[in-house]
Design a protein that fits this description.
This protein has about 325 residues and is of the alpha+beta class. It is built from ten helices and 16 strands.
Length: about 325
Amino acid sequence: MTDRLFSIKKMEKRKKVCIFAEKINNMAVETTRWGILYCPKTGASNKQKRWERIKPLLEARGVVYDVVHSESSDSVDRLVTMLISNGYKTIVIIGGDSALNDAVNCLMKEEKRVRDEIVLGVIPNGVMDDFARFWKFDDTNDEQTIDWLLKRRIRKIDLGCIRYTNSKEEKCHRYFLNCVNIGTTADIMNLRKQTRRMFGSRTLSFLSSLFVMLFHRMEYKMRLKINSDVIDCRVMTVCIGNGPGYGQTPSAVPYNGMLDVSVVYNPQVVQLIEGLWLLVSGRFLNHHSVHPFRTREVVVEEAKKALVGIDGRLMKTPVGGYRIQVEQEVINFLIPS
């Protein structure tokens, strides 16, 4: 009986996905119409609450739009592809860093002429929303965010790209808006998402995650090439930022054709506490264990067993070395006025 109920639920879910697809395919798209992808927060008790708050704000401003709701992170790529193929020129993601990352990677599969006609926007609705906050979009002020998006100020922005080989020996790549973390911080960012759901506060979740790190510090044997420098030693964490990198690359901007890199050699416990304070206060680069660089490319020749996170989401550890580069002015993004 249990197996049968499970099968019925599975069929209902597939039916719902087909309805979404049919709905999009039947949409008549004007050039001014927004295609909105709503991604509920993971773990939220009422997944529609935020949309119910945003919907009347859009209607009060006369925004012409169609909306589809993501069932899970796995559906973002498929739904963004549908919006693109059905001619939407403005695609707004209501979601966090991971949803934006999925949307960008989906967009980058298209030819340049298609990408150049599409503008991507965001209404923050994630756990950390670091890239949205870089542009001063506030998840507590949807009215301001929508007003900014309506002014349609467009900027071409850069993307970072990690190129690697997977366990099947396939050549792969993944784009990122914010940062790639290698080592301990990749683990911490994953933990931070979990603690954010518990505490509800960015600061509290980050502090609690870093407190756990005091008892779970790890070093990784790495060999990195950054410009003319070769780093060949044990490293705690590396952040390669196209954006602010959750405070670790605070000077990075996604429009100068460069990547900011912070390499942290293993500090003592007292130094970790000091680094904690500097990170929260926005002065992370002032810590003497942090070694900053600015470059167009980072070559990771070795980083044994070090986890890798892309825009706050863990990825499977690449096999062997990998290369991280910047591609300049490849995405149209709606920014504040």
